[in-house]
Amino acid sequence: MATTSQGTTRPTNSRSTTRKSTARKTGTRRSATSRRPTRATTTSTQPKTPIEQVGQIAERAVLVPVGASLLVRDNLVSTVRGLVTKYRTRAGFERELKRYERRGASARNRFERQVRRTRTRFERQMRQRRSLVERTVRQNRRRFEREVRSVRKDLERQSSQVGARAQKLVSDAQGLIGQ
Q1: Which long-range contacts (CB under 8 A, 24 or more apart) does 14-22 make?
Q2: Would the pLDDT of 25 be above 70?
């Protein structure tokens, strides 16, 4: 049986699958892309009857966990073999310990550098903010002192004018009373 492009099966004909060529071959050959694809002569992998379908499902239900457990076993065995080869001798064990120690030390140093960078950045930001606040306070104090001086001068000028007017009024009043 052969499968057609529509998915149906048809009986194979021995003449259609094997061709004999008695004609003389020419010098030019067709390229691989221009050749027609050969039709598959295998049967479909799908079971035909419901009983075969049930059998295939049951077989898959058994084979999938078995295959998964075999993969897990293979991974575990390779991991254990790797550990055994690393830690087989005292020198190998010490070499691995030194490797872990170096890795830990480099991680610690990286963390300390990051902490120092963060601390430096924080301190720089605090200095910038402090200097900005101090500058703003100085500017506000100068402005306030300038305003106070200006108001004091105005009050002194106005008080001296008020005092002069009051003396004039008193002298005018005494002049009017004394007449």
Answers
A1: 17/41
A2: no
What is the tens place of the pLDDT at every residue in 132-142?
Answer: 999 999 999 99
Tokens for 164? 């002069």
- The 3-state DSSP class for residue 35 equals coil
Q: How far is CA 70 from CA 58, 59, 61, 139, 140, in A?
A: 19, 16, 15, 80, 80
Rounded CA-CA distance 79/61 in Å is 28
Sort residue 7 into left (φ over 0), alpha (ψ -120 to 50) or beta: left
Integer angstrom CA distances of residue 9 from 6, 14, 48? 9, 15, 12
Q: How many residues does the chain have?
A: 179
129: amino acid identity, one letter: R
d(C-alpha 20, C-alpha 136), whole Å: 103
